[in-house]
Every structure is written in C-alpha cells, then in structure tokens.
Amino acid sequence: MKISDRIRAALHNKGITQAELSKLTGISKSVISEWLSDKYEPKQDKIYIMAEALDVSPSWLFGISDQMESVNDITSIYEQLEPERQKRVYRYAEHELDLQKGMEDDDILIAAHHDDDLTEEEMQEINDFIKKVKEER
C-alpha cells in the first residue's frame, strides 16, 4: 500500500477531510493534496506530525508496519481498563507470546532431531507443513 493510500485510509478512519488535517497539522492543503496524488511523498517530520493528528502509528504511515494503531493507543486503552481486566489482557498477551515462541522452539527442535540425510528442501517442506497445521488450529 502506498503512503497516499495509507493517508487516505487514516483520514477515512478518523472521519476528517484534507482541510481538517491541514488545520490539525499546520501543513498546507496543497501539500497534502500533492501527497495524496502521489506527486511527492512527505518527509519524515511531516509523517510524524500527521501520525499524531490521525491517531495512527508513524511506522504504519511509513509502510514499515501493518499495525495502524500506535502503541500509545494500545496503552491508552489498557490504562482505561479496570485492574482485573488489565490482568486478563496481560495474561492473554503473555499467552500469545508463548505461542509465538513455541513455534520458533518447534522449528529448532525439529532441526536438532532430523536425520542428517535430509536436504534443505525436505527440511523446508517439513517446516511449512508444521506451520500450516498450527495455522489451522
């Protein structure tokens, strides 16, 4: 997705116009229009300004991350939760991280226990199969 598409998506999600973004950021409407028409791309400092105004992650606007929400948004939501709900969110995040680490550990375990006569291609097929099975769970 191009940066212009990301800006458009963020404008839509926030429910504001280019003119409103201009007022929020101090960036001229014509410059924003040039970015949206792919004539130019915004410089890094402008991306940070827009990300803050649009309540999105700068790395998402840059195209580095697929996560639109900023960590500040996640933290803000977490802090609004009652203590018991915060504990549940934390335990869930820990569980997800453990699952992720488990996937990595399984790959290492298989690599350590396979016969040396397996080719790299065969090993890749085995790892692909394991990932597919885990995704279908």
Explained architecture:
The protein is mostly helical and 137 residues long. The protein folds into 2 domains: 3-73, 434 Repressor (Amino-terminal Domain); 83-135, no CATH class. It contains 8 helices and no strands. Helix 7 (83-113) packs antiparallel against helix 8. The mean pLDDT is 82.
The named CATH superfamily of the largest domain? lambda repressor-like DNA-binding domains
| CATH third-tier fold name of the largest domain | 434 Repressor (Amino-terminal Domain)
Extended strand count: 0
Helix- and strand-based class?
mainly alpha
Inertia-based shape: flat
Level-2 CATH architecture of the largest domain: Orthogonal Bundle
Number of separate domains: 2
Radius of gyration: 22 Å
Q: Identify low-pLDDT runs.
A: none
Compute the number of helices.
Answer: 8
Q: Could you tell me how far the N terminus lies from the C terminus, measured between alpha carbons in angstroms?
A: 30 Å
How would you characterize the largest beta sheet? none
Order of SSEs? HHHHHHHH
Top-tier CATH class of the largest domain? Mainly Alpha
Helix content: over 70%
Mean pLDDT: 82
